[in-house]
Amino acid sequence: MNATDRFLMNHVDMNPPELIIWLNDAATLQEAHPRISAEKDHWVPGAQQFREHKETISREWEKAGSLNVTWTKELEAATAAALEDVNINANYLVLRAKHAKDESWLHNNGYNWREKSKKSYDRTVSMVALSLRLKNGPEIGEVTAAWGKDSGAGSYQLQFCKGIPQGEESFVDQGFYKRIRAVVGNLERACWYYFRVRSIGNNMTSPWSEAVGIIVT
After folding, report:
1. Single pTM value for the model
2. Is the dihedral of CA 125, 154, 193, 164 positive or negative?
3. Residues near 67 by Cβ (< 8 Å), separated by ≥ 6?
4. Statement to judge: residues 21 and 92 lie in one domain
5. Which phi and psi (to 5°) does residue 160 adopt?
6. Does residue 58 contact residue 82 with C-beta atoms inside 8 Å?
7. 150: which of 20, 49, 53, 109 is 20 to 30 A away, CA to CA?
8. Integer Cα distance of 13 and 171 in angstroms
9. Phi and psi for 91 in degrees, rounded to 5?
10. Total domain count, the chain
11. What's the domain of life for this entry (predicted)?
12. In this structure, what CATH number is given to the domain that contains residue 185?
């Protein structure tokens, strides 16, 4: 499995202004991503390199404009360097997700998912919200979430927020799971976190579970 299997790797088709915007947005998302920001290996290009490429491409794009040309060798080289780091970054995220069996690496990172035929399930997901249970551990700063099985689900979407939820916008994706249990790490101790989960399958989703809170120890 590689990045092109999961992501729409259309960056080579972007013109410089489009690529500049994408690099900036991806850098912001990856800096805020709970997995990527804390656990990505240092040798892998990431937010810092994306921002550096953005600045270089912007500078060379302005120079090309002042010369009234579309491309220069310097702009071409800057774009090629950015695309190489984007491909390394994307393939690394796919490999980490596969190795850790944690698809949260693949979401909210700047990449768009490749459209593919969705697996059909014989049963529809339940219209009754799942029951979510939380407990601290197994390690310090971790919470184990578990929920009931939905026979119509192809996966489960787990979200959380730090502090008391103030609305739908308070929750962010923590991950998508095939199993009915997940360990969430890198949480701030002595803080309230609220979690919710729902089933996904057959082009439909179940209602969100009731938001369940826990103080992380």
Report:
1. 0.56
2. negative
3. none
4. yes
5. -150, 165
6. no
7. 109
8. 33
9. -65, -35
10. 2
11. Bacteria
12. 2.60.40.10
From first to last of the 217 residues of the chain, give the pLDDT tens digit: 789 988 999 999 999 999 999 999 999 999 999 999 999 999 999 999 999 999 999 999 999 999 998 899 999 999 999 999 999 999 999 999 999 989 899 999 999 988 654 454 457 888 999 999 999 999 999 999 999 999 889 899 999 999 999 989 999 998 889 899 999 999 999 999 999 999 998 778 999 999 999 999 9
For residue 9, the one-letter residue type is M
**Alpha carbons 13 and 19: distance in angstroms, whole number:** 9
Of the residues 45, 72, 106, which one is the last residue of a structural domain?
A: 106
Domain range for 179 is 132-215
Note whether 40 and 78 are same-domain residues.
Answer: yes
Separation in Å, CA 155 to CA 114, 177, 179, 203, 206 = 18, 5, 7, 11, 11
Of the residues 56, 91, 106, the one at which a domain ends: 106
What's phi and psi for 199, nearest 5 deg? -90, 150
User: In the numeric block, which tokens belong to residue 55?
Assistant: 């600045």
Q: Which helix (H) or strand (E) holds 140?
A: none
